[in-house]
Amino acid sequence: MIIKILLIYQCILVIKATNSKSEILLTQSVQNNGHHSNLQYSLELNSSLSHRNDCTLCIHQTLPSSLYVNSDELNELRRLNQLLACASEQIDVEKPEYLSEEINVYIYAAINSSIMLNLPIHLRYHSAKVDGGYEKVEIPKPLILIHCTTPSKEELTKFLLPCSACSDAYCNWTNHSYKDITSTPNILHMPVGNLQHYYIVVIVTLFVTCAGCVFISTLVLKG
């Protein structure tokens, strides 16, 4: 009797483990930590997804106001077929952090058992503060969406998004859960100016500018 109970309990554990097994494994990491970095995505899909030739994968990444993507850079990567990505709006690369809002970026890829994608990201300048230091910028986790020409019978959350990078046509995408196996949080550290150095910077800047003007004027008059 005890053996039967143990066997039944073991079967229940196996069933639970099977049901809870994620179809997608994701590793998200920052490469070349600095003002200009790459946000790298490594995805592993199980056979039930990777064999679907009629499906496309989309990573919906929200970037905080401290970060931006360069639309011209993404256009060039699309032209070279190196990365199919597009921002949801026109990006002003000159805006500082305090005048900016978060950005939605959509990255597309064909379904495969293993997918590696690199999104170029850039830090915006922050306002100076007393004592300066660094501002911590944490990158949120993305959404993994899949669109198939043959609709799935599963009841999954659907989103209406562009069918492909920068497309005017919209399709229904299903939100897929995934297992995040990233080892460490994705955090960037942005150096900010020190307000206590304000007057020193102004004086030195004016002095160098005036000295440069005098030097150039002297050369012109001598010539």
From TrEMBL:
Membrane topology: Single-pass membrane protein
Keywords from the named record: Endoplasmic reticulum, Glycoprotein, GPI-anchor biosynthesis, Membrane, Signal, Transmembrane, Transmembrane helix
InterPro entries reported for this sequence: PIG-X/PBN1, PIGX
Keyword Glycoprotein: yes
Pfam families, per the entry: PIG-X
Pathway(s) of this molecule: Glycolipid biosynthesis; glycosylphosphatidylinositol-anchor biosynthesis
GO terms under cellular component: endoplasmic reticulum membrane
GO biological process assignments: GPI anchor biosynthetic process
Keyword Translocase recorded: no
Coiled-coil stretches: none
Main subcellular location of this protein, as a coarse class: endoplasmic reticulum
Subcellular location: Endoplasmic reticulum membrane
Role played: Stabilizing subunit of the glycosylphosphatidylinositol-mannosyltransferase I complex which catalyzes the transfer of the first mannose, via an alpha-1,4 bond from a dolichol-phosphate-mannose (Dol-P-Man) to the glucosaminyl acyl phosphatidylinositol (GlcN-(acyl)PI) intermediate to generate alpha-D-Man-(1->4)-alpha-D-GlcN-(1->6)-(1-radyl,2-acyl-sn-glycero-3-phospho)-2-acyl-inositol and participates in the sixth step of the glycosylphosphatidylinositol-anchor biosynthesis. Probably acts by stabilizing the mannosyltransferase PIGM.
Homology family: Belongs to the PIGX family.
Record protein name field: Phosphatidylinositol-glycan biosynthesis class X protein
Species: Xenopsylla cheopis (Oriental rat flea)
Lineage: Eukaryota, Metazoa, Ecdysozoa, Arthropoda, Hexapoda
